[in-house]
C-alpha cells in the first residue's frame, strides 16, 4: 500500500491591501522627513511669488489711431475721426474711462484690457519641449541609421558607426555642447537653438544607435531568411519585418533615453538658451527665493517626464494587444 504523499499547504500571500498600506506608510514617512528638514532650515518660504512667473495678467492698451471725438453708437462707444466721419475705431466696453463727447488725440489710450500672459517659467517650459521634441526626432533618425550601420556587412560603415558611438558616449554632453556652439556653430554660423538641437541630437543618437542595434540583434535570424524566401530584398525585410518587431522590444529603453533627453536639455542653458533651467535661474535672481523656484522647476520636469512615461506605457499596452 502506497503511503500518501504529504500535502503541503500553500503559504498564504499577504493581501494587496497590506502592501498598499506599507506603501502609504513609506510615503507618510518620506513626507514627515521632508517636513522636519524644512522646519530645521532657517528660511522664510514665499510661495506666493511663484505663480506670477508662470502666468500673469498683463495690461494691454488700445491706442487711438487718429484724432477724433467719442460718440455713442448702438449702445457702445466709438472714436469718430474728426476729418472723416465714416472712419471709426471701436472702444472696449470695459477698461475705458472715456465718455461720449470726449476729445481724443492720436496715440491716446482708449481702453486697457487684462490679458493672461505666460511668464518666464512657462516660456522656459515651451522652449524645453520644443528643444527636446526637435532633438528627439533627429536623434531617432540618426540613431536608427547608425544602428543599422553597426550591423552592416560593409566594414567602412560598421567602423564609422562604431567610432561615432564610442566617441559620443565617451565624452561629456556639456563638452559637446561647447564644441558644437563655439567651434562648429561659428564655422557654420549656427544660432543658439540650432546648435543646442544639434548637440542633443548627436548625443542622444549615439545611445539610440545601440538600442536599435540590440533590438535588431534580439530578432531571430530566421526572420531575415523567411523574408528573403518570400522574395523580399534585405532592405525590404528589414523595413517590413525586422524593424517593426524590434521597435516593440526597444520601446521601453527608448522611452528612458528620451526622458534623459528632456533632463539633459537643461545643459543648453550654458549657451544662453532660455529653457526651463535658465528661466529658473533668472527668476531666482529676481525673487531671491531659490528653494521655491527650484522645487517648482523640478516639479515641472517631473510633469514632463511623467507625461512621456504615461504615453509610452499606453503604446506598450496597445502593441501588446496587437500581438
UniProtKB/TrEMBL annotation:
InterPro entries: AA_ABC_transptr_permease_3TM, ArtM/GltK/GlnP/TcyL/YhdX-like, MetI-like, MetI-like_sf. Residues 125-312 form the ABC transmembrane type-1 domain. The chain crosses the membrane at residues 17-38, 123-149, 161-184, 293-312. Belongs to the binding-protein-dependent transport system permease family. HisMQ subfamily. Keywords: Amino-acid transport, Cell membrane, Membrane, Transmembrane, Transmembrane helix, Transport. SUPFAM superfamilies: MetI-like. GO terms for biological process: amino acid transport. Its main location: membrane. This is Putative glutamine transport system permease protein GlnP. CDD domains: TM_PBP2 (cd06261). GO terms for cellular component: ATP-binding cassette (ABC) transporter complex. It comes from Aeromonas molluscorum 848. It is a multi-pass membrane protein. NCBIfam families: HEQRo_perm_3TM (TIGR01726). It is found in: Cell inner membrane; Cell membrane. PROSITE patterns: ABC_TM1. GO terms for molecular function: transmembrane transporter activity. It comes from the Bacteria.
Amino acid at each position: 500500500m502506497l503511503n500518501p504523499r504529504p500535502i503541503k499547504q500553500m503559504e498564504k500571500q499577504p493581501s494587496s491591501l497590506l502592501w498598499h498600506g506599507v506603501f502609504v506608510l513609506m510615503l507618510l514617512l518620506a513626507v514627515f522627513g521632508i517636513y522636519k528638514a524644512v522646519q530645521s532650515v532657517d528660511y522664510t518660504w514665499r510661495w506666493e511669488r511663484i505663480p506670477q512667473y508662470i502666468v500673469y495678467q498683463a495690461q494691454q492698451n488700445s491706442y487711438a489711431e487718429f484724432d477724433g471725438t467719442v460718440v455713442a453708437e448702438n449702445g457702445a462707444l466709438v472714436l469718430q475721426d474728426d476729418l472723416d466721419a465714416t472712419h471709426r475705431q471701436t472702444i472696449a466696453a470695459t477698461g475705458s474711462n472715456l465718455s461720449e463727447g470726449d476729445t481724443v488725440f492720436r496715440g491716446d489710450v482708449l481702453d486697457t484690457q487684462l490679458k493672461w500672459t505666460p511668464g518666464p517659467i512657462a516660456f522656459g517650459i515651451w522652449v524645453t519641449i520644443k528643444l527636446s521634441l526637435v532633438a528627439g526626432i533627429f536623434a531617432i533618425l540618426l540613431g536608427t541609421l547608425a544602428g543599422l550601420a553597426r550591423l552592416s556587412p560593409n566594414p567602412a560603415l560598421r567602423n564609422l558607426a562604431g567610432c561615432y558611438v564610442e566617441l559620443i558616449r565617451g565624452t561629456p554632453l556639456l563638452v559637446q555642447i561647447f564644441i558644437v556652439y563655439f567651434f562648429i556653430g561659428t564655422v557654420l554660423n549656427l544660432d543658439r537653438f540650432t546648435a543646442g538641437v544639434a548637440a542633443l541630437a548627436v548625443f542622444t543618437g549615439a545611445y539610440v544607435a545601440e538600442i536599435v542595434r540590440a533590438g535588431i540583434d534580439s530578432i531571430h535570424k530566421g526572420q531575415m531568411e523567411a523574408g528573403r524566401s518570400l522574395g523580399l530584398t534585405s532592405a525590404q525585410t528589414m523595413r517590413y519585418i525586422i524593424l517593426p518587431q524590434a521597435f516593440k522590444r526597444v520601446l521601453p529603453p527608448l522611452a528612458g533615453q528620451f526622458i534623459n533627453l528632456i533632463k539633459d536639455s537643461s545643459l543648453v542653458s550654458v549657451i544662453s538658451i532660455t529653457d526651463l533651467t535658465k528661466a529658473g535661474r533668472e527668476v531666482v535672481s529676481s525673487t531671491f527665493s531659490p528653494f521655491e523656484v527650484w522645487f517648482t522647476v523640478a516639479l515641472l520636469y517631473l510633469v514632463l517626464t511623467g507625461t512621456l512615461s504615461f504615453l509610452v506605457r499606453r503604446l506598450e499596452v496597445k502593441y501588446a494587444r496587437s500581438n
